[in-house]
């Protein structure tokens, strides 16, 4: 799978560990940084990862900051992106089955490497169920196109 992954300064270590695990599992991984531990602005990375998913240059995106919240707010501003903070295996599965979540936002401060790796594996391997859920996502797309 083609995956774009990014973090701010608070997610550098976890991102590096996830990049290794994703590559080892055979994924094509675009690591968008940040590659520095100095403070930076998470919307700059969210724009790159969400933009790639929006344009179809990546099938899925993963974003990490301290809470995952800022990344999800920023990523959801990009057309066609469905992003959410997830830190629970069952919700990770449902976020794919029901919401076709295409950008996973992780709270780097709250997850161990093992927990994050397992969560990402579950999220990547779970398919969207379609049906009634597709109808609901169409309504969300309509909101995106006709807001205000
Ligand atoms: O979680 C985040 C946004 O939701 C950021 O990682 C966090 O706000 C960065 O804070 P600081 O500049 O104090 O390191």
From TrEMBL:
Top-level taxon of the source organism: Bacteria
One Pfam family from the record: LacAB_rpiB
Annotated GO MF terms: ribose-5-phosphate isomerase activity
SUPFAM superfamilies assigned to the protein according to its UniProt record, in alphabetical order: Ribose/Galactose isomerase RpiB/AlsB
GO biological process: D-allose catabolic process; pentose-phosphate shunt, non-oxidative branch
Transmembrane segments: none
UniProt-annotated catalytic positions: 65 (proton acceptor), 98 (proton donor)
Record keywords, A-Z: Isomerase
Family: Belongs to the LacAB/RpiB family.
Protein name stated in the entry: Ribose 5-phosphate isomerase B
Organism, as annotated: Pirellula staleyi (strain ATCC 27377 / DSM 6068 / ICPB 4128)
């Amino acid at each position: 799978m083609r995956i774009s992954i990014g973090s701010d300064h608070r997610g550098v270590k976890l991102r590096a560990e996830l990049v290794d695990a994703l590559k080892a599992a055979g994924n094509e991984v675009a690591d968008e940084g940040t590659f520095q531990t100095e403070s930076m602005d998470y919307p700059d990375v969210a724009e790159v990862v969400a933009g790639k998913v929006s344009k179809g240059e990546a099938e899925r995106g993963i974003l990490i900051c301290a809470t995952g919240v800022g990344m999800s707010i920023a990523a959801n501003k990009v057309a066609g992106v469905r992003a959410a903070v997830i830190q629970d295996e069952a919700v990770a599965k449902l976020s794919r089955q029901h919401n076709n979540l295409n950008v996973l936002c992780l709270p780097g401060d709250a997850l161990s490497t093992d927990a994050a790796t397992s969560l990402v594996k579950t999220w990547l391997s779970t398919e969207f169920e379609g049906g009634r859920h597709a109808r609901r996502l169409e309504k969300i797309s309509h909101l995106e196109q006709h807001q205000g």
